[in-house]
Amino acid sequence: MTKVLKARLETLQFLYALADTASTEHHHDSINRPLPTSSASSFDIPSFSLLSIQKESSNTKENGFSHNSSHIKSSTSLQKLLHYTNDDENSLSSKTHLHSTTNNNNEIENISSLKRDNDESRLLRELLFGMQGIETPRLSATDTNIDRCTRILISRFLECGWLYEKIRKIINTPTTSLVAQAFIANLSSELREYHRLISVIEQQENIPGMVSLKKLHVWMCTPMQRLKCLAAIADSCQGKKGGQLLSILYMHSQHGDPLQQSLLYPLLYNCTIPIRDMIVEWICNGIINDPYQEYFVSTDKMVTEEKLWYDKYTLRVPMVPSFISMEQAKKIWITGKSINFLRVVCKDRTMLQINKTPASSESLFQQQRSTEFQDMIISIYNETTRYLRSILDDKYQMMDHFKAIKRYLLLGQGDFIKYLMDLMENELNKPANQVFYHNLQSLMDAAIRVTNAQYESEDIIKRLDLRLMYVSPSELGWDVCCLDYKFDGPLRTIFTEENSLRYMRIFNHLWRVKRMEYTTCGVWKQLMKSSRQFASIPEISDMTHVCFIMSNEMTKFVQSVNYYIMFEVLECSWSDLLNKLMEAKDLEQILEAHDDSLLKILTRLHLDGHETSQELAKQLRCIFDLILNFGSIIQRLIQCVESELLARKPYQKQQYYGTYTKNVEPVRR
Question: What are phi and psi of 215, to 5 degrees?
Answer without folding.
Answer: -65, -45
